[in-house]
Amino acid sequence: MPRPDAITLKQLRALGAVARFGSITKAAEAIRLTPPAVHTQLKQLSANIGAELVTRGASGKMVLTEEGALVLESVRRIEVELDACVRSVGELRDGYAGLVQIAVVSTGKYFAPGLVMTLKEAFPDIKVELMVGNREQTIAALESRQAHMAIMGRPPRFPLNHSEMIGPHPHVMIARPDHWLAGRHPVAHEDLIDEHFIIREEGSGSRALALRFLDRIGEGRVHDVTTMSTNETIKQAVMAGLGIAILSEHTIIEELKSGRLVKLDVPGMPIERAWYLITRADVPLSAAARRISAHISQMKGSFLPKLEELRPDRA
Question: Among candidates 253, 297, 296, 245, which has minimal Cα distance to 271?
């Protein structure tokens, strides 16, 4: 009765060597076994297959039977797959293959897909996955090890991390072009006291930055604010005339170019922040993640949107 589960690589290699050399003695020398050991391997393989695999030909050489030739084809396919497996393991070990997950705060979604495309072109055998969320969600992805690294603003206190500044991240105050403050230069802080501000949701870094700025210029006075959960919604609300906002300049480049939004000339603006590449200090990166992290570092922020020299509206 055939027993495929009992077939071993040693048995298959013995068959391949006999087929190549036509001699048990020469096959034994090639695979570093004794002739009796090769004979035993062939006998066990025949029993496990349930058919005679070799026979002595007219010239006295060992030749494969029809069944043996069929098994030899499978042996060759197995060897090809094993070679490919060893190469793949080596690539994984050396960082040329694998899975790398990058968490990015939602403000970064305007450049992160382009960065992933660049990484895929540089490392075609490394699968790069993108996770987008607000600041709290991005930190949680690092803490839970769902992400190997993160791109965000101010580095978190926890988890313990290494942070590297990779580029500027200015925040500006925006309004629709016909807003009454659009033509003022500069806009006095007192003029902002009664304005309605649209800000991001709890857990967003942009929200925290905007509230700190408003607290500073308002000297403790409460501002009229509306919370919205995405930058896109906030931009649409500002363009509709629902209020003004403080957003990352990287999120409004197209709207500034097209004239749908303008920057207000407010003292203290832009608020200069930076983008950071964050990795866990207490968790070693995989070889693939080290390659991706090093490549992002070497890019020195070249993947960030190019900010136009768009001055605050002078209309």
Answer: 245
